Each structure stands twice: as structure tokens, then as C-alpha cells.
Amino acid sequence: MRAIGRLGGVVLVLTLIAACQPSGPSGPPPAGKAEVGYVSLQPTSVPHTMELPGRVIALATAEIRPQVSGIVRKIAFKEGGVIEAGDVLYELDDAKFKAAYAAASAAVKKAEAATAGAQTAYDRNAKLAESNAVAAQTVDDSRSTLLQAQASEEAARADLETARINLENATIRAPIGGVIGVSAVSVGALVTENQTDALATIRQIDPINVDLVDSSANLLRIRDEVNSGRLGRGSGNPPAVTLTLENGKPYGTAGSVSLTEMVVSETTGTFTLRATFPNSQRVLLPGMFVQASVDLGSLNDAFLVPQRAVTRSDDGVATVYVVSQDNKAETRRITTAGTSGNNWIVTDGLSAGDRLIVDGFQKFSAGAEVVPVEATIDDDGVVEQDLTAGSGK
Predict the structure, then answer these.
(1) N or C: which end of the chain has fewer CB within 10 A?
(2) Could you tell me which residue ranges the Multidrug resistance protein MdtA-like barrel-sandwich hybrid domain spans (predicted)?
């Protein structure tokens, strides 16, 4: 009787367990087949950007050096201030230049007088020669004297112009507008003509340039995308560029690519892009390092593939798994063109409607039969799926 009682208890427990198990199509997958999460792929137009490191460069730089020697009498600018082209920067003692100009002016007047006397003598002799009152040699001599006087006058005028230039150069003016730095000399200092050390430096920083560096291989890839029609520029305007500063904050105003270097570096295999930005607030300063995002346009008929679904082989080739028509895990080699959020931008290797495996990779190998379960991926790259419905698919 006790044996019968124990048997009844076992039957009761088994009955309760069976009642708790799911029934119908939501049961476990067939033996030997792994459940995998997948998403269906559809081509889309994806904004294509290129992330590049960059360094801020002044639009123009002018180092101020004296063109004449002299003692600094006055410094007429505020260090670190904004100046305009033509503003007075330094005034040198110009007494000797004024004296030289006065001497050169007197020499011109003397030469003019000599030229006038020679001209009169030549005219008189030429008239007398018409009546054979003077010899032909006399006319020739007076003509030669006139030409020499005219040459001397021209030389005197050239000396006067040199004296005028030296006098003007005693006042040193700004060749360009911009922000001027610290003065390397003070009042009373002796400066020399075309000296090695600059008196001060002017930099134009509004607008300002940013030099970006990229590899030549990337340049060729982008050119191929444009030529194939996959990368559309739309309006045809220069690519827009946005910046991220060294503190991680975005720069408020976008710029545009203004120059592409036509030479690839022989040592690094890189080329330079130059972008120009408004800089009225002087946030960007020469020498700063920034991170730039270049808007290349839109990649047409591209696929957004979650990064978790992509692996790379030892030779760097990107691969993914897709579910074939007969529900087998199939390997695909793909071509990527950068990222968009948590996704790789894939331009080759996939087709519309492909079922891309995004979860369950540890459960199968290439060529194995799988049970596909449709999944979704949120903005953070987390897979959401209902694996209990797998056997019903």
C-alpha cells in the first residue's frame, strides 16, 4: 500500500510539471538548431561624414621688420589688440632721413638748372649752325652736354625717391589687418634694416583656417564613391565642416573646405584639406588642435549594420552572418564606409531583404542550421527579441 501511495505522488508531481510547461508552437527549438536574432535590412540614404584631426592656422601672418636702421621713438599699438592695414606700429627717429631727403631735393634742383643751361646752349648752337656760324662739332658737343645733364637729373630724382622711401619707412605701418602680438623691442631700442628678429607679428584670425590631414587611400575611396554615383553631393557646394574643440565642446559655427593639397606626403602618405571658419569671437587660435567632421554628402543605397554584428578577420576584412533561404548561417564579406551612431555604413556585400544575424553568435558556426527570431535594436545597440516564438517562425 505504501508503494502505491508513493507512485500516486510521483504521478501527481509529473502532472503539475506538465501543466506548467508552454504548449503549442512556442515550445523549444528543434534539436541541433540554435535560435538567433536577426533584423531585416533595407537600403537607405545615409549622411556620410569623415572624422579628421586638425590644427588651427592663421589666415595670414606678417612678421614686422624694419626696412631702415634707427632708434625706436614711439610704439603706437596696443599689444594683443586688433589693428587695420596701414595703421602706424612704430616710429623711428627720422632726423637723418629728413636731412637726406632735403639734400637729395637740392641735388635735383641743381641738376635741373644744369639741364636747363645745357638745353639753352644746344638750342643756340643748333640755330647758328643753320647759317654756318658755328662748326658742326660745336653742335655735337653741346648736344652731348645736354644728354649728360639730363642723365644727371634723372639720377638725382632717383636719389630723391630713395630718400623719400627711407623717410617713409622710418614710420613702420601694418601690412595687413589682424591681431598683433607682443612687441620684441621697447622705446629707445636700436633696430637695423632687415634684421633677423621680428619686431612683432600680426595674424589674421577672422576668418581662420584649419588644416586637416587624411590618408591618400581614403581620398581614392571617396573619389571612387563620387565617380560611381554612390556618394551624392546634391547642391555641389564645398563640403561643410564642423569642429569639436579640445575641451570636447562643439564649435558653434560651421566652416567649409577651401583648399585641397594636390601633393601627397612622401613620408606619411597623407594629404591636407584646409577648411575656413568665421572666428569673430576669437575662440579659435593658431596652434590649437581640433577634431573635424567633414560632410561629404549622402551615400545612396547603403545599409546601416549594427556594430555588434560585424567581425573582422586577421587580414582586416569585415564579415557578417546572414540567414540564408534554407535557414542556415551564411558568412558575407562586406565593405564599410565609416560609422553612423552605433552602426557601420555598409556599401557592398549585402542586399535588400537580407536577414542579418545580430544575436546568438555563440550558438552556431558558419553553415549551421538556425532558427531565426526577428529582433529589434534600440539606439544604445541593445537587442530586444522574443526567443520563445522562435520555433513558430
Answers:
(1) N
(2) 61-202
